[in-house]
Amino acid sequence: MATKGAKVERSSVSEQPHELKYEAKKTGTSTKKVEEAKKESGSNKRPAVEKAIKGK
Questions:
Q1: Cα–Cα distance measured from residue 35 to residue 43, given in angstroms and rounded to the nearest whole number
Q2: Dmax over Cα atoms in the chain, in whole Å?
Q3: Is the pLDDT of residue 48 over 80?
Q4: Quick one: average pLDDT of 23-42?
Q5: What angle do CA 38, 41, 47 make, to 5 degrees?
Q6: pLDDT at 9
Q7: Nearest CA to 23 among 41, 35, 40?
Q8: What is the Cβ-side half-sphere exposure of residue 15, based on CA atoms within 13 angstroms?
Q9: C-alpha closest to that of 37 among 10, 7, 9, 13
Q10: CA dihedral 54, 44, 38, 40 (to 10 degrees)
Q11: Mean pLDDT of 37-50
Q12: Which pLDDT belongs to residue 5?
């Protein structure tokens, strides 16, 4: 049973379209803003990306 991979998946935002759409809907922004926040934060971790989105 691979539990470590599941934890990594939940705590990060990948480049996959469905992941970007989910995060955009969750934060009330567009997928483009989520991509920009990922670049700005230099991380794909959800807390860092959400912090970058809220900081805009």
A1: 11
A2: 40
A3: yes
A4: 95
A5: 80
A6: 73
A7: 35
A8: 1
A9: 13
A10: 90
A11: 94
A12: 58
